[in-house]
Amino acid sequence: MQTLSIMKTQAELGVPREFSACHTAAAGGYWLEGHVPAESISALLKDAPEDVAGVAHLRAEIQSGDDVAWEVATYSADGRPISSKMQVEPAGDIDDQLEHDP
pTM surpassing 0.70? Predict the structure, then answer.
């Protein structure tokens, strides 16, 4: 039944189905989907863009033995992409998260 609860939360937040992932959160009136890095959440809350409804983590790629690049994108309320950014983090900090990447 936990899956139904997550889907209900996603629907209540207005997360487009194509972005639904294993983790859903809300902060500052925005939806957050997947493994959105803390840096991206902080920037979103600081900038508080009015045209953004939410942020989704789209994918993570191993760049080298030491770094992972995350693609994080912002979306409008109707699911249109607004921006996309690659963010690099040390792999050691996120090894556990890569196993259930959306």
Answer: yes
Take residue 61 and report the two structure tokens written for it: 């790629």
Output the CA angle 31-35-41, nearest 5 degrees. Answer: 50
Per residue of the chain (102 residues), give pLDDT as tens. Answer: 456 688 888 889 988 888 787 789 999 999 999 888 888 899 999 999 999 999 888 766 666 667 777 788 888 988 888 888 877 777 665 545 544 444
